[in-house]
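Illustration: 3-oxoadipate enol-lactonase.
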Amino acid sequence: MILNHRFDGPPDAPVVVLGPSLGTTLGLWEPQLPALTAAWRVLRYDLPGHGGSPAASGLTRDLTVDDLAGAVLALLDRHGVQAAAYAGVSLGGAVGTALALRAPDRIASLILCCTSARFGTAESWRERAALVRAEGTKPLAEATRGRWFTPGFPDAERYLDMLRGVDPEGYAACCDALAVFDVRDRLGEIRAPALVIAGADDPATPPSHAEVLAGGIPEAALLVVPGAAHLATAERPDVATAAITKHLTIRWRTA
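Result:
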């Protein structure tokens, strides 16, 4: 599985990988690029069927979050990156958690945004996968608006258009991956210095999910962003970007 990806920033700088949420593309992270590319080589990628990545194919079983972590490791190997920092939103955050567990020597610093160690029930994800396989992603847009953003966020359509453009099979495969993701009993194994960010008004992964992550990962820090729902990095980029750059700067130097 080769994921569409791109680099920005100085070629000789330390690498930070940015993982998107289900239904968005690597464009989710554009608000953070000016700050991050000042000191980091930024690697962004698209999930299967999202943006420029083909839908997952060739698997003889359902896609898993660990498969996605393996695909990110393959990107690092392909470009000769031995160690990187990682920040991810929602499913992208779950990929970061899986990476920190699977390859602890490769992840020097970890930022988990609006994500969880366990995303709801398997049944709810299987139902959503079936709906999208039958009708595509467009029927999800209005319900997603209320999960992703607080009322009145002016830029919502930009991100909802990303969702509308996702390949249905790619989206459904990612739902299958979330259906079986559960690392609640393994959080204590993570050794990367971690920052957990939650949106105060996030109905999808509320602050209680962030508290589980921050409480389970040794010495993890927790930030709850006011006035933000599930895509807090997009809705409150001022607060999120400042926290991300501060954590990366301090934790990379002390790792």
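Reading the tokens back as a structure: Residues 237-254 form the longest helix (18 residues).
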